[in-house]
Design brief:
A: about 325 residues, Rossmann fold, four-stranded mixed sheet, B: about 325 residues, six-stranded parallel sheet, two-stranded antiparallel sheet, about 45% helix, globular
Chain lengths: ~325, ~325
């Protein structure tokens, strides 16, 4: 395997290109995905390669984008719509939650809705309350959806290819601050099955379950804590739904301590679910209270010092680990 | 598609089937056998039958919460349909969907939808898929006057227009969104007027006249199949029952008895029956035969449904994911 490094955005683009070349039912639609190449440049070049029938620029019409994707999927296509920001998902919530997620079930298993909704989320670009949220946890609460949130170029490519081949609606959360991150991605084809966590760093004293951008902050925290003699294991679920409970519980049983690092706000979040699973299934293995490191329960503020204060950083993760070790 | 004697009688039979089926649902509802909500199609039969008669068997429809008529008109089997309505395992959706979610892919029924207006972008999307797969099928989308005020209508019609999709939008304008009259809720006198905002033909049709609906639908379907894009048909009609079974006085809290009687005088089945008699196609004896045949089929459907088991409890946990 080659050791080349490419960016997270390039890895996503490669996955799209490969799946479109492989299966003519796969097509892209969304705002500015064609001529403009996507607001974050992810779909750049695909219009020239696949033409405007399969790389469709749409009006600003999120409900329509997902509604049309649902209809096209129901008759056999495999749409990969892009919603420009996670903050725009409420505009098409109806089609995701009441239609895409339920149609297979409520029609008795007759219709499949293979859609992969790509959507950038996350803070850090100083774009304030309506362009910075992490909303992945909302979708974890909906039976019938799968939720994916890769943290590295390698994971992004393999998981996106698997998502596109999945026969269910998948919400694929990309993190804006990771698009330029470089990492090793093999030249050859590979898939990463949905529902399998990855151990990003092995350790023995505490487990941090971290998602998306927080995986990197958790790894920075773990590196610093190693200097103090604290050995931290970092688990990236990669797929928030279905969740690899086994990997999380296995690590908790090994370390006896659990910290969850997530970028979304704390209350009712993904971290609460992970904490509940650990409390239900492995409380006997826990040597200390579970800690959640999450954003404060506020909208994302604009002013840079405020935004940086609200979103968890390395320091807060380190403090959380120290408080239980 | 010319309407020969056989086709005309088939249309009449379907309208009678819808009427008797819905009367049976009302009866089962009153007896407490029917779980949940029943939104009946009585009074609007000419719209479903006229529109679906302009379709090929492999064309698709999307339906609404008031969808029994659409499903029967598109060719649903009464037995699995009634079984689904009664929550039985032999139903179209194994008892998981019920009255508002009948789906029969083999008959081109992409599913009835309980969220008003949401089937409109879905219909446009199905038409997009058909177009991209180079098929010559058409999607016909039923919805009501209430749906035409929601965002789904506007986004769906805009997409259908800019991408010239093979879809026919059929608005069943029955004058009330539950209790809200169109004249209070809607910015235009005719919902068909909204077609011009989306650069597509719009046509007002007498929704009590099955042949008028058929003719308008035939033109719109032909246009869609030719690749010339979508159309909006507005069929003026009326529901003879309440919004749902249990709506007090069949809707007299928000509409007058005089208005109801005026519309009941224009019963689509009676009008069509008179027309067929005039054409020398239907006499009393034949009409009686059709009634008997339909009643028998509905009784058999009820017997089938009542004899069918409820779904096993573990099936509640199946089919969440494909």
């Amino acid at each position: 395997m080659s050791s080349r490094e490419i960016t997270y955005a390039e890895a996503i683009r490669e996955a799209l290109r490969e799946e479109m070349a492989r299966d003519e039912r796969v097509f892209i639609l969304g705002e500015d995905v064609g001529v403009f190449g996507g607001i974050f440049g992810v779909t750049k070049g695909l219009l020239a390669e696949f033409g405007e029938e399969r790389v469709r620029d749409t009006p600003i019409s999120e409900l329509g984008i997902i509604g049309l994707s649902v209809g096209a999927a129901a008759v056999g296509m495999r749409p990969v719509p892009e919603i420009m920001f996670a903050d725009l998902l409420p505009l098409c919530m109806e089609q995701i939650v009441n239609q895409a997620a339920k149609m297979h079930y409520m029609f008795g298993g007759k219709i499949k809705i293979p859609i992969t909704i790509r959507v950038p989320q996350g803070a850090g670009r100083r774009t304030a309350a309506q362009h910075s949220q992490c909303l992945d946890a909302w979708f974890v609460h909906v039976p019938g959806l799968k939720v994916v949130a890769p943290s590295t170029p390698y994971d992004a490519k393999g998981l996106l290819k698997a998502s596109i081949r999945d026969d269910n609606p998948v919400i694929f959360f990309e993190h804006k601050m990771l698009y330029r991150m470089r990492g090793p991605v093999p030249e050859g084809e590979y898939l990463i099955p949905l529902g399998r966590a990855d151990v990003k760093r092995e350790g023995s004293d505490a487990t941090i379950v971290a998602t998306s951008l927080m995986v990197h902050r958790a790894l920075e925290a773990a590196a610093e804590l190693a200097g103090e003699g604290i050995s931290v294991e970092v688990i990236d679920p990669r797929t928030l739904s279905p969740l690899d409970r086994g990997a999380i519980l296995g690590s908790v049983r090994k370390t006896g301590r659990l910290i969850i690092a997530e970028e979304a706000c704390r209350t009712g979040g993904f971290g609460a679910e992970v904490a509940a699973i650990a409390a239900e299934e492995a409380i006997d293995a826990l040597d200390a209270p579970i800690r959640r490191v999450a954003a404060f329960d506020v909208p994302i503020p604009f002013s840079p010092p405020l935004e940086d204060y609200v979103i968890p950083d390395k320091k807060r993760i380190i403090e959380a680990v120290r408080s239980v070790v | 598609m010319e309407l020969d004697r056989e086709k005309l009688l088939e249309m009449y039979r379907k309208m009678v089937t819808i009427r008797r089926f819905e009367e049976k649902v009302a009866e089962l509802n009153a007896r407490g056998v029917f779980p949940g909500l029943a939104h009946l199609y009585i009074g609007e039969e000419a719209v479903a039958v006229g529109a679906c008669s302009a379709l090929r068997a492999d064309d698709l429809i999307t339906s609404t919460h008031r969808g029994h008529g659409h499903c029967i008109a598109k060719g649903c089997d009464l037995k699995p349909m009634m079984a689904e309505l009664l929550g039985r395992y032999t139903g179209y959706c194994k008892g998981k969907g019920g009255s508002m979610h009948i789906c029969d892919f083999d008959r081109g029924i992409l599913g009835a939808n309980g969220i008003v207006g949401s089937n409109i972008p879905i219909a446009a999307g199905a038409a997009l898929g058909i177009k991209m797969m180079r098929q010559d099928r058409v999607v016909l989308c039923f919805f009501g006057d209430g749906a035409s005020n929601g965002g789904s209508f506007h986004e769906g019609l805009n997409f259908a227009s800019i991408w010239k999709l093979p879809v026919v939008f059929v608005c069943e304008h029955n004058m009330y969104a539950i209790s809200m009259p169109t004249k209070k809720s809607t910015s235009v006198a005719n919902i068909a007027d909204r077609a011009s905002a989306y650069g597509m033909p719009g046509e007002v049709v007498d929704g009590q006249d099955v042949l008028a609906v058929y003719e308008a639908a035939r033109r719109a379907v032909a246009r869609a199949r030719r690749g010339d894009g979508p159309s909006l048909l507005e069929c003026k009609t009326y529901r003879f029952r309440g919004h749902h079974e249990g709506d007090p006085g069949r809707g007299t809290t928000y509409r007058s008895r005089e208005e109801m009687e005026l519309w009941e005088a224009r019963c689509p089945i009676r009008l069509f029956k008179a027309k067929l008699a005039q054409m020398g196609i239907l006499d009393e004896e034949l009409a009686k035969g059709i009634e008997e045949e339909v009643s028998r089929a509905i009784e058999e459907a009820v017997e089938f449904a009542m004899a069918s088991p409820f779904p096993p409890l573990e099936s509640a946990l199946e089919d969440v994911y494909a």
